[in-house]
Design goal:
The protein is mostly helical. Helix content is 72%, strand content 4%.
């Protein structure tokens, strides 16, 4: 690619991004949700700077069930320090805000990694089914139908129970439930455009199947994949939370929003603030991703733009 062609490409992409942002920014609720997600992402990235991991996992029973805003003496790193528990403390005397911050890191990792795994595996299988058709299409789609016939919660529980309770197995369980959706989206999108003139032109000049799918088809079906991925990040975080709530996900003392809710349910009458923080965090995160997904759909769909 010459310098002039590269500059034209950059100019065209810049124009597309500008047009997309202009359309997306009209949805003020989606922009606010995007800002909220970015705040959660920054909190997750700098969790160790905001709160020491040892501090939020070590027990301090003398500070158990403190109310929000209370200050108490905490023994940390071989010395006593005065610490204000902004959101209170749990039944082990651990700072709820600190555990919420580190729980954001785990939730964000689960959300993005599971969606990435599902996009790659589901995208490959969907591309094969949609582009090749025939026996490949039949086998892949029947397997997809079988997976879809199993309730998501039962399949996730069965996978974790069979493979064992670990972080990696949790990722497998959640991503497996997402794969069929991407298979169907990619397959349907490829079937709708694989006979277009530009695809036929690529075949005529001798382009291979892999190059045609990668260079000519996939760039034209990214919009529904992006929208679905955004929605699935929120659903993955929610799935991880209820699996941890059932004792099949991230186990204490590791901080995770689901297991924080699980530990707090025993103290709902005496310390309801234990439920509010992780519950509101899950609610806001999942809601934000769903609103962003709707905003992306409106901005990327040319029919809705008109």
């Amino acid at each position: 690619m010459s310098n002039q062609s590269f500059l034209r490409f950059l100019k065209r992409q810049s124009k597309n991004i500008s047009q997309f942002w202009r359309q997306f920014s009209r949805n003020k609720l989606a922009v606010a949700s995007l800002i909220l997600v970015l705040i959660f992402a920054l909190v997750a990235i700098f969790a160790d700077i905001l709160y020491s991991y040892d501090f939020v996992t070590s027990n301090s029973l003398e500070n158990a069930l403190l109310k929000p805003g209370e200050t108490s003496t905490v023994y940390f790193r071989e010395k006593d320090i005065e610490h204000t528990f902004i959101l209170g403390s749990d039944n082990y005397g651990r700072d709820i805000l600190g555990r919420l911050v580190h729980g954001a890191r785990i939730s964000m990792i689960i959300g993005f990694v599971t969606v990435a795994m599902a996009v790659v595996i589901g995208g490959i299988l969907g591309a094969i089914a949609g582009y090749k058709g025939g026996l490949f299409d039949t086998l892949i789609m029947r397997l997809t139908d079988i997976i879809l016939s199993i309730p998501t919660i039962l399949m996730s529980i069965a996978i974790v129970a069979a493979l064992g309770n670990s972080f990696f197995n949790l990722l497998i369980a959640i991503s497996t439930s997402l794969i069929p959706g991407y298979i169907r989206i990619v397959r349907a999108s490829i079937i709708s455009i694989k006979d277009q003139e530009y695809v036929e032109a690529a075949r005529v000049i001798g382009a291979g199947d892999f190059r045609i799918v990668l260079r000519h088809i996939l760039p034209n079906i990214t919009s529904p994949i992006i929208v679905q991925s955004t929605l699935n990040v929120g659903s993955s975080i929610l799935s991880a939370s209820w699996l941890s709530f059932l004792g099949l996900g991230i186990l204490p003392p590791k901080p995770e929003w689901g297991n924080m809710l699980s530990e707090a349910r025993e103290f709902i009458q005496y310390a309801p603030h234990l439920l509010f923080a992780p519950g509101i965090a899950i609610l806001l995160t999942v809601l934000a991703y769903n609103i962003i997904g709707d905003g992306l759909r409106d901005a990327l769909d040319p029919k809705l733009r008109r």
